[in-house]
Hints:
Number of strands: 6
Radius of gyration: 18 Å
CATH topology: Alpha-Beta Plaits
Number of helices: 3
Strand order of the largest sheet: 2-5-1-6
Largest sheet: 4 strands, antiparallel
Oligomer: single chain
Number of domains: 1
CATH architecture: 2-Layer Sandwich
Structural class: alpha+beta
Amino acid sequence: xxxxxxxxxxSKFNEVRKALHEADIDFLSWWDVKGQGDAKQGxxxxxxxxxxxxxxxxxxxxxVRNINVDKSIDAILKSAYTGESGDGRIFVSSIEQSIxxxxxxxxxxxxxxxEDELDEK
Length: 121
């Protein structure tokens, strides 16, 4: 199991969420966040200097089975890409254990994916 975390442009979030849905990744969490990259910018408006380095982003987090890692990453890469500085980052880390509280399922069985629906039919 892997945890995938991505920081993407706020303007690309709906495209990313749709691409993940099409890749059968429907269970995820997201937060509005602000971040600062290496670009140094400032804005002067009516004689007042504003720091515009803090940029609105969306932080996405979800856990998937190992077989779904590559298609999840591909979905984010293709949908979040603009080709400009500030497109975001993707982080992948290992998950030692997962437990579904309602059923007590452990490991891969505790995760929601389309395979759960296919197994039941």
